[in-house]
Amino acid sequence: MSSDASLKLLATWMAGHFRNRSQALRDPVWFAHIHVYQCPLPWQVFGGWGFYVEQAYDIMLDRPYRQRLLQLIPGDPIRIQNYELLEPERWLGSGRDRCRLLDLQPEDCRPLAGCQTLVHWTGDAFVGRCLPGKTCRVIRKGQETYLHSEFRIQEGLFFSLDQGRDPQTDQVVWGSLSGPFEFEKVESFPLGELGKAGDQGVHGGGIGEQGDGPHFIGDFF
């Protein structure tokens, strides 16, 4: 598969609304029912494929607890760069009201140093793993940790595992101790719905406020 084809296929599989309802029903002690919205960004934000990602509990869909931006960088391997929003409250609810993302500009975010994922094609799926070397540092509840993350995505399915580990001992400080989250796609979002120049809109609804929640790929800020 060519580099361009791989990048577009990855973006296509990422774009959409996911949830782990089956997993949460099967094992409610360890996994809450979570919705993930991975919304294609207007082309002008990164000059290529990018996503606004928002997460919410099933019982509080109008109060998403986590936001981030992802940039897909072509190459072999593909890289996914994490970004933080400078004014996250301004964009709350955009997962279910995607037309608001038409106003998002490059100056509204900044990259997080060392926080990239390397992505490889296996023949039937993409697998990703964070950069080696403990480069993505996260301060959580006053303690410095480094991110260990890995994922697998294929058509309709997205498995992910994130852990914050102690830089000295490598012991898990936060994150899943019971294996990866298992998300199923319930709706696909068209890659070009906002246009390469931000000239098209979509419909949706719902806003909320940011809080705390569980952790999976990229979900650590």
Which tags fit this structure?
221 residues, 8% helix, ten-stranded antiparallel barrel, single chain, mainly beta, 2 helices
Can you give a write-up of this model?
This protein is mainly beta and 221 residues long. Mean pLDDT is 87; it is low at 197-221. Helix content is 8%, strand content 41%. The longest helix has 12 residues, at 3-14. It is globular, with a radius of gyration of 16 Å. The protein has helices spanning 3-14, 21-26, and strands at residues 16-19, 34-40, 50-57, 66-73, 78-85, 109-121, 126-130, 137-140, 143-154, 157-165, 172-175, 181-188. Strand 8 and strand 9 form a beta hairpin. The chain starts with a helix and ends in a 33-residue tail after the last strand. Strands 1-2-3-4-5-6-7-9-10-12 form a 10-stranded antiparallel β-barrel. It has 2 helices and 12 strands, in the order H-E-H-E-E-E-E-E-E-E-E-E-E-E.
The largest β sheet comes out as:
10 strands, antiparallel, barrel
Assembly form of the protein: single chain
Strand content: 35-45%
CA radius of gyration is 16 Å
**Classification by helices and strands:** mainly beta
Percent of residues in helices: under 10%
Q: What's the end-to-end separation, in Å?
A: 34 Å
Q: Sketch the topology as an H/E string, one letter per element.
A: HEHEEEEEEEEEEE
Number of strands: 12
Count of runs of 4 or more consecutive helical residues: 2
Q: Pick out the low-confidence regions.
A: 197-221
Give the overall shape, derived from the CA principal axes.
Answer: globular
Mean pLDDT, all residues: 87
Biggest sheet strand line-up: 1-2-3-4-5-6-7-9-10-12
